[in-house]
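Both lines are quoted verbatim for reference:

——
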Amino acid sequence: MAAPMLRGRCLGRCWALACIDSGSRHGRGAATGFTSSGKRGQSFVAQQPLLTAQKSRKGEHKWAAVVGLEIHAQIASNSKLFSGSQVHFAAPPNSLVSFFDASLPGTLPVLNRRCVEAAVMTGLALNCHINKKSLFDRKHYFYADLPAGYQITQQRLPIAVNGSLAYSVCVGKKWRQVITKTVRIKQIQLEQDSGKSLHDELRSQTLIDLNRAGVGLLEVVLEPDMSCGEEAATAVRELQLILQALGTSQANMAEGQLRVDANISVHHPGEPLGVRTEVKNLNSARFLARAIDYEIQRQINELENGCEILNETRSFDYKLGCTVPMRDKEGKQDYRWLLLLSKYRYMFGAGAYFKSTR
């Protein structure tokens, strides 16, 4: 199935922040186009690292940025991934919660066939290899909106691996040159969504809505083949169009049906990659581009001032236009991964136990 192309996206906003160096490549996917001389060859922008726009003084080195994405898309299904509860946006709080969603003792998951079909269709459209056998794992962490204390996801053997996503960008002084770039897809996995925490600042309390708990998600993990915010936003828009064309997800970012986590680091060309930070829960392509570009410049400024970059999770404050720290990752969190094997042995393939609800 030919994926639709999103045309006419420009990297104009990146030029205010960065310039592109044509002299170096760092293992990124190739993109071809017509150079300014009219000869077909490697584009002077394609898959090149992001470099600071400030003029370099003698002895100073330029910076290259590396950006990878984790994209969570809500599957278009009438029921949740492992329960028969319905899926509706803006339903009354805690009105769509089954015993399994609330993690009551003795309840067992039953896999939704529609979610598996949606994952396979998406994997095929993104040129992925579909694993004939795919397993679920339990990822343990403790949040108030995760009543079970773990998330059912796929870590070791996901449903699809090794794909690619092509998208088009405009380059050149007047952005008249259109080139096609490719980002590698590491894997596509099925997983549960968590509930939602509603913070009431006036009463100093947090309320929990479990309507979203257990809703089926497609997580698309993109390799760090991008180098600026607008490039990442263009790739997300392209994926959004593909999901909508397939009908596997409505991908409405305003309703939280498509959320993005961005992993960002900077380094000098030719040197090892730097310490990365993660910007969580970006639900707008425009905010995604702004958050990445800000974080790139923040890390460059920190390093040039002799500071260290912390391996931390940050969020984007769209009112202030900057990222703010949420929690650090210096101590590696032990998720205690556990293979999920129950009475029905949840595997895809011969003898798989499905629920037929769509």
Summary: The helical segments are 12-17, 113-125, 229-246, 285-304. The CA atoms of residues 68 and 224 lie 4 Å apart. The first strand starts at residue 18 and ends at 20. DSSP finds four helices and 20 strands in the chain.
